[in-house]
Amino acid sequence: MRKLLKGVHQFQMNYFSSHREFFEQLSQGQHPRILFITCCDSRIDPNLITQTEPGELFIIRNVGNIVPPFGVHANAEAAAIEYAIDVLDIKEIVVCGHSHCGAISGLLKGNRLSDHLPSVHAWLRYAESTRRVVLENYQELKGEELLSAAIEEHVLIQIENLRTYPSVHAKLYGGQLNIHAWVYKIETGGIIVYSAERCNMRAEHESRFTEPRLDELETDDDSDNHHLDRNSVSAPLAVE
Amino acid sequence: MRKLLKGVHQFQMNYFSSHREFFEQLSQGQHPRILFITCCDSRIDPNLITQTEPGELFIIRNVGNIVPPFGVHANAEAAAIEYAIDVLDIKEIVVCGHSHCGAISGLLKGNRLSDHLPSVHAWLRYAESTRRVVLENYQELKGEELLSAAIEEHVLIQIENLRTYPSVHAKLYGGQLNIHAWVYKIETGGIIVYSAERCNMRAEHESRFTEPRLDELETDDDSDNHHLDRNSVSAPLAVE
Amino acid sequence: MRKLLKGVHQFQMNYFSSHREFFEQLSQGQHPRILFITCCDSRIDPNLITQTEPGELFIIRNVGNIVPPFGVHANAEAAAIEYAIDVLDIKEIVVCGHSHCGAISGLLKGNRLSDHLPSVHAWLRYAESTRRVVLENYQELKGEELLSAAIEEHVLIQIENLRTYPSVHAKLYGGQLNIHAWVYKIETGGIIVYSAERCNMRAEHESRFTEPRLDELETDDDSDNHHLDRNSVSAPLAVE
Amino acid sequence: MRKLLKGVHQFQMNYFSSHREFFEQLSQGQHPRILFITCCDSRIDPNLITQTEPGELFIIRNVGNIVPPFGVHANAEAAAIEYAIDVLDIKEIVVCGHSHCGAISGLLKGNRLSDHLPSVHAWLRYAESTRRVVLENYQELKGEELLSAAIEEHVLIQIENLRTYPSVHAKLYGGQLNIHAWVYKIETGGIIVYSAERCNMRAEHESRFTEPRLDELETDDDSDNHHLDRNSVSAPLAVE
Amino acid sequence: MRKLLKGVHQFQMNYFSSHREFFEQLSQGQHPRILFITCCDSRIDPNLITQTEPGELFIIRNVGNIVPPFGVHANAEAAAIEYAIDVLDIKEIVVCGHSHCGAISGLLKGNRLSDHLPSVHAWLRYAESTRRVVLENYQELKGEELLSAAIEEHVLIQIENLRTYPSVHAKLYGGQLNIHAWVYKIETGGIIVYSAERCNMRAEHESRFTEPRLDELETDDDSDNHHLDRNSVSAPLAVE
Amino acid sequence: MRKLLKGVHQFQMNYFSSHREFFEQLSQGQHPRILFITCCDSRIDPNLITQTEPGELFIIRNVGNIVPPFGVHANAEAAAIEYAIDVLDIKEIVVCGHSHCGAISGLLKGNRLSDHLPSVHAWLRYAESTRRVVLENYQELKGEELLSAAIEEHVLIQIENLRTYPSVHAKLYGGQLNIHAWVYKIETGGIIVYSAERCNMRAEHESRFTEPRLDELETDDDSDNHHLDRNSVSAPLAVE
After folding, report:
1. What is the dihedral of CA E120, E125, E129, E130, to 10 degrees?
2. Which residues are CB-neighbours of B35 under 8 A, at least 6 positions away?
3. Which chains have 3+ CB pairs within 8 A of E?
4. How many angstroms separate the CA of residue D96 from the nearest CA in chain A?
């Protein structure tokens, strides 16, 4: 804790004192443009990796950046999503997963967690789709590879879960909201970006007037993404 | 989103490229020393105000930095707390509230939220103690003053709620865990620090062998804080 | 009841006695090909409108043909969906709404139901997305028209909710499951068919009538099909 | 699906076109006389076995025709029961089980379902009474015989569960509602009918004006009827 | 508290010291014969009104001696009932209501409680059947009379709710358990006794071997007993 | 039951008839001074061990005298606590555990209960803190000794859980409520008294202006108790 308090002191001496007015202004109210949902993992610093200032990102952090489907009584995520959209009028949502995620790796262990980590196990039930998808469709993968596949499928599933929230659905419907899925690769600093909006559109577009070329199909709509080799997946979209 | 992706690019070009090895190492695993629970509010950047690096803080962020008492089935906070203590072996927890908190201000509105913000309203039920405490004990306060009082009482109540979690209770009991309540003042960069753990020890210690000094007394136990004039409360401990 | 028992008697004398072997065989086990989810409404007879025999449709009927998003503890729909897919290996799901639906019309009344119909009101919370979508996007509609719009949006939303179920998601992913949304028009006997798997293309297609211009593409997104004139929507797909 | 769509076409060409007015009328509103609760099992067609027309039966179908006791938050059955009684003013309820029920047979497997069919297992918890009753009172039975016993006990228990719903209880009390338990035997087309109403009053009657004789007291217990040879049980009432 | 501690002291000096062996024996284990469920109301002392010793009554006390129907996750009553029957092998259950019950009187106020007594209001939802029964069937009553009617109906409903518990149902079924409903009249010391067991069997019996006469069918309904003049109701059984 | 009814008769003939006026008065309303929370265990008679009359103790009895932390929807304890404080204006709460508690002993068995006592197991989850505390901090103890330690820790934890209730917290805050933890030793008639309220006051008080006396220190704050040798713990306060 000493270190932490020292840090606070430094912040005050340096950063804060040189931004007094900015913070004074911030204290008047927040107007974030983006709802950023990510994992509790200590290795992720949303403001650092996006180079954003205080006031820009409204942030939810939970174990495994899980978005439980709408309907669970009184849960934290529902409150934050509702607040972001209906109170703060946010129009962009990013669900950001990350490589080497302990939650997803625990998820793949299934019921073996239930005895010694009952609360983690119960929480991970909301991510059961991720587990089922990889177990049934990635039999060929193991260890790190299986984990990477699960992590990517997981963020894609969470953006679908987001769509089950009334406020999200209503805004998406009106074209007033965009949802994005990211996977942050700690070791490379790379971010794979899946844009729900864009990819659906693509798929529709191409599926319509042209005989789609295989490589395009790859990114054609999120269910589609599932079929591809994960490396190429978001090559065109990845920011590396 | 363009701005955000630009930010990611900057991060990669500058910060990341100059810390490749550090991130390479981080990707091997996380060993955070502190569980940091704070609000979704965009104006709070935990790593900035504590001047910490990626890897140091395991972070939960929800609306109002609420710690629901233990027992609610499958909630995010229980999973994160259990993971932090039983998996990551974390020994310090900080619950960090902040000035001008929209959640607490919504809480003081009571049932008026239930119609247009049903999920926020349901979630805030877990903070009902905060509402009751200020309504019954701060009748003389209004507006900003009432809100400040509520924000401070709120963090003190959340650290009590933390004690209801089995893993937290067992470690506190064994003296292997410390819990701290902070209130971050956006406009001044100041942080009021309440240390539940230290004070219990202290209290015992001092109540036994020494005539405690007044400034120490201020923080001698969280119930204690409640009896003090809120302004002076944490003066001695506040880092301003 | 006398009438009902008479009916049973007729059934036995006529239909059953002329199909003894068929029923004998049925008693050996069921092998339905389709999971059919529809409303409790007495005016819907799934086997009649699809001209199917006993043994062909595995049927869930609840108020408003609602599919609560996955995650609610111990609910009937989750059990039936899991049973249909993981036990019966069903590969086609139809969610069938209908015109003049009392549940949807109740839904549009919002909280006014909570006092005298508390259980109906609580159940309809799972359909809140439908309410939000029409309230925010069909301000121009009233009465019957608004109801029709809500009924159609509702089935589209339920097929999205279906995707949140682990077994559904895993099979969709593997291309082993198709989901269809129907709206049955009692007065015309017509059925509007939305095919989630196929539709993302089809529906989109028809919804356009024009070679989309790039700038339109930007906002192209599956909610798009929602924007169309409801009559023309699925004309080509509608079976009338 | 082609077959299903063909069926719809047939329905429209034949049945519908020859009943246009009837359906036109139906579209004006529903006035069902009976709430019919049965299993999702594809082999059951309520309208067929009772030879009823669209508009006559308000139907709930779930796995195992289970009526969870009142009190579970926001469940489908509570909504449908409340709607049937308080909105549609229905005065007759039939809970219809059936032979060879996969749900009951799964129920008898107990916790062995929990791993691979978690949602089915959780749902069947509401039918635990059925499992306990047969396990403790039918030790002599095995296989098909045990299953048949369970299926019959199960419907009797569900009509008791119905009584726990406020609207049901209030109407039963006023003599404005009748509840019936049926077991449909797929192989014989037979239906065993249990009528809940008939029993209690008489007994109450007797317990009032006569000093019960000891020998009566001994065997006095409603479960008694359960001890009867199941075949004869409802012989007089069975419609075979 | 002084008074209470004085009381403890008296107990030790007098009662305990003169019953040392009895308590020594008790400490070896409990073998109660009866599960007694009553209200928290301070005016009820189960051991006093039944003149029983420590060790005889296993006691549940909650607001309004409510037995929530089976199925609510992790509730106190389910645990106590299961423990009483499956661990202690208890064979008699008494649900004891009482005159002037504040909980029932609150129940009759309905939703007016929800704002200032949210937890009481939520709990009383389990007693909604009582409210509905009296509101719909005792319109002629007011004040004290209405309350008395509600209190009596309430205990009868709770013994029905008891039947929804698997362990209760299984034992009732086997004739190994008896359930009794009592209403204790504080002012007269009288107790009205309803014995659930006695009624049903006979009726079942009759419904079997005789073709029920139409006129019986009409009035056939267990709620009938409720129509009797409440004073005479259990006259023969009442202990006054 | 005969015995019980005889007991009622005796009560009426003797105790009641000699206290007619007292009961007449009681029937006017209750004004208990204390909320007494204890176990269902038949060996505990709160009025006997405190030598109190009807009307003095508002009593909650559940398996293991557990106070689930605030937040669980519609639970009995929340209703009773709210009623006691907000309706009856009670200012003293006693949580009374007891030696040889079957619930705590079941708790120490952990998941082994889940199959044959599912409801008890689910309920005991709320006491998981007790299990964790003794398992991690009393490795040296076994059998009866371990059980005694668990029973004492358990009541201390329940008084912390009480603090999570809004009405409790608000009153404690204002110094208008005192909470006490007792352990009743069946075999000795002794009661160990932990006084949460007094000790907080004391601790503050003493930690400030006086050199506390050792015997007071023993109970100087509940976290404190945890560090003491359990035998000496409450010696000074125990009433034996």
Report:
1. 10
2. B57, B58, B59, B60, B80, B81, B84, B85, B90, B92, B93, B94
3. B, C, D, F
4. 30
Pick the residue from chain D with its C-alpha nearest to E217. D198
Residues of A in contact with D115 (CB under 8 A): 111
Question: The tokens of F17 are what?
Answer: 């008839």
H or E segment and range at residue B122? helix B118-124
DSSP secondary structure code for residue C4 in this structure: H
| Chain E residues with CB within 8 Å of chain B CB | 73, 115, 118
Do the beta carbons of residue A81 and residue B119 sit within 8 Å?
yes
d(CA C194, CA C159): 10
Cβ(E180)–Cβ(E159) below 8 Å: yes
* pLDDT per position as a tens digit, E144-193: 999 999 999 999 999 999 999 999 999 999 999 999 999 999 999 999 99
Kindly give the confidence (pLDDT) of every residue in chain B, 240 residues in length, as a single tens digit, with 9 standing for 90 and above. Answer: 889 999 999 999 999 999 999 999 999 999 999 999 999 999 999 999 999 999 999 999 999 999 999 999 899 999 999 999 999 999 999 999 999 999 999 999 988 898 899 999 999 999 999 999 999 999 999 999 999 999 999 999 999 999 999 999 999 999 999 999 999 999 999 999 986 543 332 222 222 222 333 333 333 333 333 332 322 223 234 555
Q: Closest Cα to residue A59, out of F137, B65, D91?
A: B65
**Between chain A and chain E, are at least 3 CB pairs below 8 A?**
no
Instruction: Enumerate the residues of chain E whose CB falls inside 8 A of the CB of residue F16.
Output: 189
| CA atoms of D128 and D124, how far apart (whole Å) | 7
Q: Do B200 and F221 touch (CB under 8 A)?
A: yes
Least confident stretch, A220-224, F91-95, F157-161: A220-224
The Cα-based distances of E75 to B76, D141, E59 in angstroms read 22, 34, 15
Q: Scanning every residue of chain A, which has its alpha carbon at the shortest distance from the alpha carbon of B117?
A: A82
Nearest CA in chain E to C73: E73
B73 neighbourhood in chain E, CB within 8 Å: 73
F15: tokens are 């105790």
Question: Over 80: is that where the pLDDT of F193 sits?
Answer: yes
Strands C178-185 and C92-98: parallel
pLDDT of residue B240: 54
Contacts of C124 in chain B (CB under 8 A): none
DSSP A33: S
Question: Cβ of B51 and A80 within 8 Å?
Answer: no
Question: How close is the nearest chain B Cα to the Cα of F9, in Å?
Answer: 44
Give the number of other CB atoms < 10 A from CB of residue B86: 18
C-alpha A167/C-alpha C195 separation (Å) is 25
Distance between the two ends of chain E, CA-based, in angstroms?
A: 36
Distance from CA of C51 to the nearest CA of D (A): 5
Assess contact for B240 and B190: CB atoms under 8 A.
Answer: yes
Instruction: Please give the single-letter amino acid code of residue F112.
Output: R
* Facing residue for D80 by CB, picked from C40, C178, C187: C40
Nearest-by-Cβ selection for F8 from E54, E83, E191: E191
Contact C43, D59 (CB under 8 A): no
Kind and range of the H or E element at A144? helix A143-162
Residue environment code for A160-181, b if the CB has 16+ CB neighbours within 10 A, otherwise e: bbbbbbbbbbbbbbebebbbbb
Q: Rounded distance, CA F185 to CA E237, Å?
A: 39
Residue E33's nearest CA partner among F39, F3, F105 is F3
Give E52→chain F minimum CA distance, Å. Answer: 7
Measured CA angle at C212 (ends C210, C217), to 5 deg: 150
